[in-house]
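A quick aside before the break. I want you to see a complete sequence-to-structure record at least once, exactly as it would be stored in a machine-readable document. Don't worry about memorizing anything.
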Amino acid sequence: MALGFFGLALFLFLTLDVDQGSPSSASAASSSSQNVEITYGAVLKLMHEKTKFRLHSHDVPYGSGSGQQSVTGFPNVDDSNSYWIVRPPLDTSAKQGDTIPHGAIIRLQHMRTKKWLHSHLFASPISGNIEVSLFHILFNSQSLAIEGSGKTWKQDQRIRLQHVDTGGYLHSHDKKYSRIAGGQQEVCGVREKRADNIWLAAEGVYLPITGSK
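That is the input. The structure line, written in tokens, reads:
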């Protein structure tokens, strides 16, 4: 596991765009401990509390709705397509290394494809809720508000992520695809607070704190 984190940190140093606040070799730090404060620039996996699946994407479009890149829940822990970069919102002074208070706005960028987590009013393929997809162009509709307890967002802390534009909470459930992503479960948005829209920051590369917001 330690070797895997080292490899991820090296990959980030070699590939991520510095202008987007990417980790450097000096600042990237892996951790498996609890209560680590999450900062902008962290690279992490989000685990769905109820099913333990990881938020995931790959270069496969939906066959309905927007036709954009699909977002799913993935059962295995060790897939690199489940890593997300925590970015600050547009038009902000927040920077890499700043802690993230509850109520703050974040954006999630898929590490492998560089696309942005996004929601809109197309119906999700299985349940007919709000579709969640990835899109390559940066919009305000990719803003997510963090809801949780305590002052700042921490690893292993129960949170909800609400899309600002649609009002939908990032949600998953035990409804699985049979074709576009066999065995993976649907990720969608719902406007009600439910047990199925709780997530935790799990595996990842967590950065040293350089400031707080």
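Two observations worth writing down. Confidence is low (pLDDT under 50) at residues 1-7, 9-32. The chain has one helix and 13 strands. We'll return to this after the break.
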